[in-house]
């Protein structure tokens, strides 16, 4: 059971207050394209990307209250008006509070790898999940996945080419250990300093879907 510290940040949105269907243009005060990060952690990655793209609106999603608090504080410190933070489970949030084809980009950085063999079915990014998120991406939208756990990276890199409606942006490679211009979180840098290699996967939703 998490000890929930009240989050009074104006950037924090309580899931129960987001009555479906959510008018995200009203939430942000503009009709800019919508981006989602699942598992924002302490928000260091999202804040960098949001600062780089003021013409996009960013939803930072995390299940942990402490991460939501830190992300809000970081975004406020940088004066970012294009960030909103929600504490929620990803699949339920997307199903209930996002419209089909409403995202221009989806970022998933270093989700829980569930390293034990018997627990790997709990991993977030698997074939059914990719099929699920496909419907929320606009034609041409980006799907980014990154992990510090080699087995997880190789698994996603292996099944993604078989998923209909996506184009591999890294072809002929299935994954890379470096993406030019992709911001590294403190979590990534920590593991890289320990000798781990990040596996990056980048796809786009086909425009004829």
Topology:
Layout (H helix, E strand, L loop, with lengths): L11 E2 L10 H5 L5 E5 L5 H9 L4 E6 L2 H13 L5 E5 L2 H8 L5 E7 L17 H8 L2 E11 L2 H10 L6 E3 L17 H8 L5 E7 L4
Parallel strand pairs: 1-4, 2-3, 2-5, 3-4, 5-6
Antiparallel strand pairs: 6-8, 7-8
Can you walk through the features of this model?
The chain has 209 residues and is an alpha/beta fold. It has helices at 24-28, 44-52, 65-77, 90-97, 127-134, 150-159, 186-193, and strands spanning 12-13, 34-38, 57-62, 83-87, 103-109, 137-147, 166-168, 199-205. An eight-stranded mixed β-sheet has the order 1-4-3-2-5-6-8-7, sandwiched between helices. The longest helix is centred in the middle third of the chain and has 13 residues, at 65-77. The relative contact order is 0.15. The model has no long low-confidence stretch (mean pLDDT 94).
Key structural traits:
eight-stranded mixed β-sheet; 209 residues; globular; alpha/beta; 8 strands; 7 helices
Category from helices, strands and their pairing:
alpha/beta
Number of strands: 8
Sheet having the most strands:
8 strands, mixed
Strand order, largest beta sheet: 1-4-3-2-5-6-8-7
Which spans of ≥5 residues are poorly predicted at pLDDT below 50? none
Following the backbone from N to C, one meets helices and strands in this order, namely: EHEHEHEHEHEHEHE
**First CA to last CA: what distance?**
42 Å
Number of helices, where a helix is a run of at least 4 consecutive DSSP H or I residues: 7
Given the C-alpha coordinates, what overall shape results? globular
- Give the integer mean of the pLDDT values: 94
| Proportion of residues in helical segments | 25-40%
Rg computed from alpha carbons, rounded to a whole number of angstroms? 17 Å
| Strand content range | 15-25%
